[in-house]
Amino acid sequence: MIRLFGHHVSGLNLVLGLLELALFVAALQLGVGARFGWELPHDIAPADTWVTGLIFALVMSLSLASMGLYQRRAQDGDAGFVVRLAIAFAIGTAVLALLFYLFPAIVMGRGVLALSLLFSFVGTVALRIAFDQIAGAESQKRRVLVLGAGVNAERIAELAERDRTLGFCVVGYVPLPRSQRLLADDKLLTQKGSLLELAIAHNVDEIVVAADDRRRKLPVGELLDCKLSGFAVLDLLTFFEKEVAAVKIDLLHPSWIFFSRDGFRIGVTGLYGKRLLDLTLGSLMVLVAAPVMLLVALASLVESRGRDPVFYHQIRIGQGGLPFRVHKFRSMRVDAEADGRARWAAKNDSRITPLGAFMRRTRLDEVPQLFNVLKGQMSLVGPRPERPEFVERLSSGIPYYAERHRVKPGLTGWAQLLYPYGSDEEDAKRKLEYDLYYVKHAGIFLDLVILLQTVEVVLLGKGAR
Question: Element (H or E) spanning 237, and its range?
Answer without folding.
Answer: helix 236-244
